[in-house]
Design goal:
425 residues; mainly alpha; two-stranded antiparallel sheet; globular
Amino acid sequence: MIKTEVIILNSKKTFSYSKIFVIGSGFLTLMLVWTFYNAYMPLILGGFIESRAIRGAIMGMDNLLAVLLIPIIGAWSDKVNTRIGKRLPFIVVGMPVAALFFILIPYGASLSFWALISIDIIFLLAMTVFRAPVIALMPDHTPPDKRSSANGVINFMGGIGAIIALFGLSLLYDLDRAYPFLTAGLLLLVTFILLFITVDRNPPYSGSTAADWEEIKASHSFFSDLRQLAKPEFRGQLLILLAIFVYFIGYTGVEALFTVYAVEYLNMKESAAGLTLGFFSLAFVLFAIPAGLLGNRWGKLPLMRAGLILQPLFFLSIPLLPIFTAQFPSLNEVLLLQIILFTGGITWALVNVQAYPLVADLGGKDKIGFFTGLYYLFSMAAAIIAPSILGLMMDLFTHPALFYSSAISFIIAYYLLRKGSKLIH
């Protein structure tokens, strides 16, 4: 067996990939819970609320809480000093409470709308309490020169969590609506116990790591430096950030409301709708690394433009499937939809994998933190409003408007990206 600990020269500090995998389990269950919540909560809300716009607004609440609270909690966890360290107090409070109230969601839905909303708010607050501290465990246990590879492990495990949610938990939904919530909640509790036992109380690389978090950079950059984007010399950078904002509206809206479209318009079973959406996530996970390698070879901008052109074609084809399969009854509509979503996940990788490195390069080495914060803010702002905007389009123009609106957002983003890159170069 290969020993995983590496002794850092001139220091007694150690680094262990096995510990990073344990920490990554926290991100795996975090993504598992969020992915399942985003796919199925709109369907549960549909039992009380017909309007897709209102359901979308409720779905944007978690992103709003993230923008408002995570910078505060992240900075707080840097300053506290307890017997169990800086991060664990927030994890001890947040994870078990989030697990319990996630399990209670389907039972709240069986009681009343207000019982469901009350449980949902407590669940969202609990998730917000432990999100930043869990993410901070990685830099706390990792030397700076190994954080890129460790972050790759963390993000890979997050992708695995999303796939488990859509391919695994979706199957349980058919048996009983409560089963996947119970399973995910218990996994969250097991992960909490694993983290509590494993992570160091005084991690070797713990310091003030808040400055390294995207959420904290976002807060600081927004309030102190956002005015710089109004200057003429930053017009190109602003257009690129607006492009990211616009296409994230299209992506996040589809992510949040696809199951509503599939169940209410295509009459798919709820479990089949979640599983079908999983093909998009699966393709993204499989092609994220190849997309990064292609970006290094052919350039980030050309690949992003290609993705922004191709993505609308796939989304525009989805509302045409019922018409096409009506003409050719031997074709399986669900299978065709899964193939389109899988291919769309590949083109999404072409876009999204390049986006952050492109933005980080916009201001040179001296402004990486500034543009990292802006990237986070523009993408999160889109995630807050996207479900309600695309839900409103579905209310006004029927369910296929979800994909037509999303396709338009990608086309507009292509124009903004092209114009912004010309101004910079």
